[in-house]
Design brief:
- The chain is built from 20 helices and 2 strands.
- By secondary structure, the protein is an all-alpha fold.
């Protein structure tokens, strides 16, 4: 392992991240501002948490890069272990420094300016870190006991949604573009972001070119959604940008306390629904669409499965709700059922209705949806549809082998046979996902004896699947604030695990990882 070079690269990332921490200052352009606003005391007060955070991040970057540079040999190559270490450090550093604006908005600033209402009144650092990691990992879970006052904390709301947008694909793209030859480990991790799933097939020959292509697609979808929400949905520019960031990143954070439900706007719901669905598709499909490579789209097994599964889920959920007479008309049932099905299946977590009030069979269906997740190469969470397809095909082929043991069968994705190593890797991932989930549910139940098993289970599954809302105690009208500090640390760790595809961070916990060979 080349720890010095790994630390240096992580430090360079923090340097770039320090500049992103200043972007919320530009959110004033999306409010009713005037030129005098920039010179006002109010603007300065709101800016201080981000200015302080940016300075601290920049100082840390300079320290860690200068320290590691002394022991650094730039000719040394990086390996798979270094890739895992860098990936983990990047997400942890992003979560830590992304938490500083919440921390300063809860402690330092209210102490000097009594008119500012603190975001958190107790367990400030734990709550700030939880909120930051939730944003960076696009989980959407929140520990705000009282939703931030938009007049006082519009920059915080902007940062919360922007951090989701950065975490959705931006952080990985930053690594791909700045460090195109970084290591095998990062390239392996990036394969999911490229939309190739287990086959490790790039959409362009060069990693750098792939990063730029994905960045332009990501930016393009975000800008398109912003203009559609602003001009067609008639939302304010601030609400449009916040919901654009949260939708494209599958983050689900809203500028309204009751999320999308608080707007009660059918037109906006349908716009967000369409873009949630698009965000659940591998970004590689958009590249193939732009380049008119329609055969790649048609042959893509995961894309066809994603469309089919979502149509099936919507039909099943609408049928359950309609049979239980939850809504007055089929139109309302379709409106809320379709929105919630797509929101959960893509891991976005937007809510247009408190689904905790729905019948048990509807909740079970939603639970299944959140575990499956969306496509690899998208911003969604869960186990990913490509893994589900591989598992189902493996089971089917195993049955066929029992019938005809002399015939050779292979799992095929996109009309290409997969290596047994890939199939076994998917099986191992599923086993590890289930084992960690069960263990975490038991541990959370022990940490929170007064919390129901349904609340504990949905909190764990929602965290590791990077969704956010759940059932009972963490329903769409509630938050994670009632959990103890130890439970929040556990759930924060699960968010990072889910975002980094589990293996990346688990590998760091093995003693063999830190050995020379």
């Amino acid at each position: 392992m080349n720890i010095s070079k790994s630390l240096y690269i992580s430090g360079v990332f923090v340097r770039y991240f320090s500049f992103f921490l200043l972007l919320p200052l530009a959110s004033i352009f999306f409010t009713n501002y005037s030129l005098k606003s920039f010179l006002s005391n109010d603007f300065l007060i709101k800016s201080l948490p981000f200015i302080y955070s940016s300075i601290i991040a920049l100082i840390f970057s300079l320290i860690i890069t200068n320290y590691s540079q002394k022991k650094l040999n730039f000719n040394d190559s990086l390996g798979r272990k270094d890739g895992f270490l860098i990936a983990s450090l990047i997400w942890i550093f992003a979560g830590f420094f992304g938490a500083l604006p919440y921390y300063f908005s809860s402690s330092l600033i209210p102490n000097f300016f009594s008119e500012v209402e603190p975001l958190f009144k107790n367990n400030i650092f734990i709550n700030s870190f939880f909120e930051s990691v939730s944003g960076i990992t696009t989980t959407g879970a929140s520990v705000f006991s009282n939703f931030p006052n938009i007049d006082q904390h519009y920059m915080i709301i902007f940062w919360r949604s922007l951090s989701q947008w950065l975490g959705g694909i931006g952080i990985i793209l930053l690594v791909l573009i700045i460090f195109p030859k970084i290591s095998v480990g990062i390239m392996q991790l990036a394969s999911d972001q490229e939309g190739t799933g287990p086959q490790k097939e790039r959409i362009t020959p060069k990693l750098y070119q792939t990063g730029l292509t994905l960045l332009f697609i990501y930016l393009g979808i975000t800008l398109l959604l912003f203009f559609v929400l602003y001009f067609i949905g008639n939302l304010s520019s601030f609400d449009s940008i916040v919901h654009s960031f949260s939708t494209v990143s599958s983050g689900g954070f809203s500028s309204y306390e009751l999320n999308v439900e608080g707007m009660d706007n059918f037109k906006v719901e349908m716009i967000i629904l369409i873009f949630m669905f698009l965000s659940g598709i591998s970004f590689a499909m958009f590249y193939y669409l732009i380049s008119a490579n329609f055969n790649k789209i048609y042959e893509n097994t995961e894309f066809k499965a994603f469309v089919l599964i979502n149509i099936l889920l919507i039909c099943l959920l609408v049928l359950i709700l309609n049979n239980n007479n939850i809504f007055d008309s089929l139109t309302e049932t379709l409106r809320y059922g379709a929105f919630q099905a797509v929101s959960i299946s893509t891991g976005t977590g937007f809510t247009s209705y408190n689904f905790n009030q729905w019948p048990g069979d509807a909740k079970i269906l939603l639970l299944i949806i959140l575990i499956i997740g969306g496509s690899s190469g998208s911003t969604t969470g869960g186990i990913k549809i490509i893994r589900l397809v591989i598992i189902l095909k493996s089971i089917y082929l195993e049955i066929r082998r029992r019938i005809s043991p002399n015939v050779i069968y292979t799992v095929k994705i996109n009309n290409k046979s997969l290596d047994d190593e890939v199939v076994s890797g998917v099986m191992s991932f599923l086993f590890l996902f289930l084992a960690l989930t069960i263990f975490s549910i038991i541990l959370l139940s022990l940490l929170e004896p007064n919390v129901s098993i349904t609340t504990a289970a949905s909190a764990v599954l929602s965290s590791i699947s990077n969704l956010g809302p759940g059932f009972e105690g963490i329903n769409p009208h509630s938050s994670y604030n009632f959990f103890s500090s130890s439970s929040k640390v556990l759930l924060t760790f699960l968010m990072l695990l889910g975002r980094l595809e589990i293996f990346t961070m688990i590998a760091l916990l093995l003693p063999s990882f830190w050995r020379k060979y």
